[in-house]
Amino acid sequence: MSPSTRREFLQTSAAVGASAWALASQARALRGGRKQPNVVLLMLDALRPDYTQAYGEARPTSPWMRSFADQAAVFDRCWSSSTWTAPACASLFSGLYPPEHGIVEGFMANSRRKERQEDKGVADRAPTGQKINTFAPDMVLLPQYLREFGYRCFGIATNPNIGPQIGFDRGFEEFQVRPEGTANEVTEWIESWREPLTQGDQPYFLYLHYMDVHKPYNQRAPWYQPSSGGESDPGETRSEAEEAAEAYRSELRFMDEHLAALEKSWGWDKDTLVIVVSDHGEEFGEHGGIGHSFQMHAELNRILLMARGPGVQAGRIATPVGIHDLLPTLLDHLQLAPPVETSGKSLAPLLTGVASEGLEERLLYAHRRKSKFRPLDIWGVNHKRWRMILNEEGQLSMFDIEADPLEQSPVAVQDQPEIHEKLGVALRRFAEAGISDRAVLREVEQSEAERAMLERLGYADGEEEGGE
Predict the structure, then answer these.
(1) How far apart are CA 397 and CA 390, in angstroms?
(2) 85, 130 in Cβ contact below 8 A?
(3) Residue ranges covered by each domain of the chain
(4) CB atoms within 10 A of CB 96
(5) What is the CA radius of gyration of the chain?
(6) Is the domain covering 3-456 a CATH 3.40.720.10 domain?
(7) Residue 467 banded pLDDT, cuts 50, 70, 90
């Protein structure tokens, strides 16, 4: 799809607008005549699936998630649309890929680029605030859809990139950004919402965004094991990556404990649809880094996705799916009208144990931008057992994730010429379509304290959000 064609499609879809969607929803509501289930969406930032017991980890990192998975539909091959938070969550909220919704840079990208230009003497030196990508005014987000249908929408985000500056609060009745908040604190904060959410006949949508397993990795007692003299590896000295992974596991167990307590406190049962998802994974030395720097490999692109609740059949689902599928899936599973615009597909049939025609053959794309003097982009595509990456230098690499799950050995073109050509052509076309100009650059103020906080989280140095 060319840039002009993509813009025309999005503009035409948006012109139909929320009003048409609202009319269809109201008609569906009159036919339905039933109480909708509550919806709880737990976003576990930077959670790598294979470190959880739900996805095969042998160590006791996440007993609550293991128990949840036994009662849930578990997607074994879910892919993010990016490898860092803002574009991935924007895809969840909008149902669009990053090049379509345009949220591709974070708080620090614009200021870093300007600072480098000033060093070269080429920037406009007029004083400006921080500029950040924001959702287009006519883009309808998940909470807006649900609120139109009668849901009370409340949310807390502990990642500063998920806030009103980009527009993530759109559609929420109550939305709080509590940077660096921990899992136990989230439970305390939402207690004040118990009465408004549980009183009356309106269903609620609750979005909780956790940052516990994101950098910096704390050594959580009693689950963290020291590298020397510890029970797990007495006398051994870990590498930097191994040490980070051990702290990460302890953070995961800490978060898991508090998710278990949260569920018990709120009593989410058969009447509540609970979705557990991550936005991207994390690297521990597989490709030379720690965290989620400017990469597109599977350890960063693969995410966790589980759903439990009314109408959901428990079981493992091997069909490859994407984070941008969540919006159309929720609306379909709740029997609401379809979204005004989306690149995702409804997974509602899979949630009920029914095969969905065409999903197996889909290509699922991903994108990440790096902010230097000019933007640099890496692109990814997932298809069945194959993954292909187009790096910032225009080079293609293809991997077989069944034979090589950590992507250590690229598949040579001559070994799989047909699939290499198919994915290469498709990925280059997707990349050539470019980034939509639909997102709006908005100027916001940023205090020294806020910048210091971003530095602690790894954003200010650019490693976590694609800058440098």
Answers:
(1) 7
(2) no
(3) 3-456
(4) 25
(5) 22
(6) yes
(7) very low
